[in-house]
Each structure stands twice: as structure tokens, then as C-alpha cells.
């Protein structure tokens, strides 16, 4: 793999060059990131220490919250630093590292959502086999496979990135490093590499979205045979999952299934799935989930009782 060393640093142009808008965005993104970290950590702690949340669904939700936190952390702190910094440079190695981390946890989030859909499918469509199919050992193996798959996907992104030679232009018209904006700076024909990106990232996004939508259609269809109370509970959980899937896969599919052309909405779409979705996930999974809210109240009551003693 040959790499042109003439460019050792990139300049991230960010979302806007207007000082007033930059200040507004700084506080908006700081609030979003703080909410993302606090919300997901709250879910992680609640699931970790609540005996009532020991089912496979919450086992997978635990790892979804970890992926959300790390996914957002891969871009937002750097974005906040660049907004208040006079120099917005990022070294070549830091840029490649950001590509790796961004895709590692983004892909992990996708795989965990698929596992959560599998869990709901077995629970609703195959209830008599649920305890056998979704036993703890199987869930652990599935999570390990998800980590391995995410790692392999990220390695593939790095291999593609290292193929790109850069011959002088180092201005990245984005707020983070990713293959799509890097392809536009490469001084080579990137047609084949872009096809590989679409085949890799694009295929993962579109295929996963298709699988998830089909699975939820099957789940919703099978609910006709359940009791009214069972349908209500299943619909509440399923609706939360569908909202998360649409919020994540819509923007991802838009970004990774087309040529690296520049559209005015590109960066805002990227903001939505790298900053907005990780922020909304904790709200969706807590505000719409009675079991999680009750577990949080019990933990809070237990903490207050312990402190009073």
C-alpha cells in the first residue's frame, strides 16, 4: 500500500465559518453530547445493577448504549474543540483513527439493533422456544460476533483509506474524517474505491435496514393472535425499535449508498446520525419503556435509603 506523505495534516472546515453560528452550534452540540453521555450512562448503570432488567432485550440495550456513547464521542469532542479553536487541523494518523472508531461503533450499533430485532421476533413469534434460543450463552456469542463483524468492517475502511494518495489539497469540507470526504481530496481516480465503499458501508446499511423492516412487519403481523395487553406491550417496544431504526438508517443510507458528491445537506444529515440519534436513543428507550423507568426509580430510592442510613 502506497501512501503520499506530502499531506500530513488535514483542515476540517466544519459546519459553518460564521463566528456567531459557531458559538450557537457549540452550545447546542455541547448540550446534545452531555445528554447523550448522561442518558446512555444512566441506562448502562440501570441495566447493570437492576435485577428486573436481566432479559436478553436489556442485555442488548446495554451494548447499544455503549455503542451510542462511543459513536458520539468519536466525533463530537473533536467538533467542539474545532469550533473554539483557531486552528482546525487534524493529523493524518488522527484522521485515520477517527475513521476507524467512527465505523467500529457505528457498525456495532447497527448489529446490536439487528440482535434486538431477533430477540423481539423470537419472543413474539416463537414464545415457547424463547428461553432456549435466547439463553445467556447465545446472547454473549452473538455480541462477540457483532464486535468481530464491526472490527472487520472498520479494518476494511482503513485499508481503503490507506490506498488514497493526497497531493496538496488538505481542506476537508466536513466536521469529521470519513471516507466520503477523503475520496474527494484524493489525487487519483476513486471510482473503484467508491464502489467498494458502497459495497461495504452502503450494503451494510441498506441490507440491515431491509432485514429489520421485514422482521418488524412479520412481528406486527403475528401480534394479531396475541391478547390486547400483550399487543400493547409488544407494540410499545416494537415502535421504539422502529423509530430508532428509521432515525439511524435513513441518514446512513443517504450518505453511503451513492457517489461522494457534495450536496448542501450532506453535513447536516451526518450531524443527525452521529449526534442526533445517539442523543435520542436514551430518550426513546426510557420514556417509552415502563420497565426501565421503574428500575431507575428503584435504584434512586435504594440510593436515597442507603445515604439516609
Automatic annotation (TrEMBL):
Gene Ontology CC: plasma membrane
Annotated membrane topology: Multi-pass membrane protein
Major location (coarse): membrane
Gene3D superfamilies in the record: Rhodopsin 7-helix transmembrane proteins (1.20.1070.10)
TM spans (from-to): 24-45, 57-76, 96-118, 138-162, 191-223, 235-256, 268-287
Domain of life: Eukaryota
Localisation: Cell membrane; Membrane
Domain annotation G-protein coupled receptors family 1 profile: ranges: 39-285
Keywords from the UniProt entry: Cell membrane, G-protein coupled receptor, Membrane, Olfaction, Receptor, Sensory transduction, Transducer, Transmembrane, Transmembrane helix
Coiled coil: none
A Pfam family annotated for this UniProt entry: 7tm_4
Gene Ontology molecular function terms on file: G protein-coupled receptor activity; olfactory receptor activity
Protein family per UniProt: Belongs to the G-protein coupled receptor 1 family.
UniProt protein name: Olfactory receptor
Gene name for this UniProt entry: LOC100660842
Amino acid at each position: 500500500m502506497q501512501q503520499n506523505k506530502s499531506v500530513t495534516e488535514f483542515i476540517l472546515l466544519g459546519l459553518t465559518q460564521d463566528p456567531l453560528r459557531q458559538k450557537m452550534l457549540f452550545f447546542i452540540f455541547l448540550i446534545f453530547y452531555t445528554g447523550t453521555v448522561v442518558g446512555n450512562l444512566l441506562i448502562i448503570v440501570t441495566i447493570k445493577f437492576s435485577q428486573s432488567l436481566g432479559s436478553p432485550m436489556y442485555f442488548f440495550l446495554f451494548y447499544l448504549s455503549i455503542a451510542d456513547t462511543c459513536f458520539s464521542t468519536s466525533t463530537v469532542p473533536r467538533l467542539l474543540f474545532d469550533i473554539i479553536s483557531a486552528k482546525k487541523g487534524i493529523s493524518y494518523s488522527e484522521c485515520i483513527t477517527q475513521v476507524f472508531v467512527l465505523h467500529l461503533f457505528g457498525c456495532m450499533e447497527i448489529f446490536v439493533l439487528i440482535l434486538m430485532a431477533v430477540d423481539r421476533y423470537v419472543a413474539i413469534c416463537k414464545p415457547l422456544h424463547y428461553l432456549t434460543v435466547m439463553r445467556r450463552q447465545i446472547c454473549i456469542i452473538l455480541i462477540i460476533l457483532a464486535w468481530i463483524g464491526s472490527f472487520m468492517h472498520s479494518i476494511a475502511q482503513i485499508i481503503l483509506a490507506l490506498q488514497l494518495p493526497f497531493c496538496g489539497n488538505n481542506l476537508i469540507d466536513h466536521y469529521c474524517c470519513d471516507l466520503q470526504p477523503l475520496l474527494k481530496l484524493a489525487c487519483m481516480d476513486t471510482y473503484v474505491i467508491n464502489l467498494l465503499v458502497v459495497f461495504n458501508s452502503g450494503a451494510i446499511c441498506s441490507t440491515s435496514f431491509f432485514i429489520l423492516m421485514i422482521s418488524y412487519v412479520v412481528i406486527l403481523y403475528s401480534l394479531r393472535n396475541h391478547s390486547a395487553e400483550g399487543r400493547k406491550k409488544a407494540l410499545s417496544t416494537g415502535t421504539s425499535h422502529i423509530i430508532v431504526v428509521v432515525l439511524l438508517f435513513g441518514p446512513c443510507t443517504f450518505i453511503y449508498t451513492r457517489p461522494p458528491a457534495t450536496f448542501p445537506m450532506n453535513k447536516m444529515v451526518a450531524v443527525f446520525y452521529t449526534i442526533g440519534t445517539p442523543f435520542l436513543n436514551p430518550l426513546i428507550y426510557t420514556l417509552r419503556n415502563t420497565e426501565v423507568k421503574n428500575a431507575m426509580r428503584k435504584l434512586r430510592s435504594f440510593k436515597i435509603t442507603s445515604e439516609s442510613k
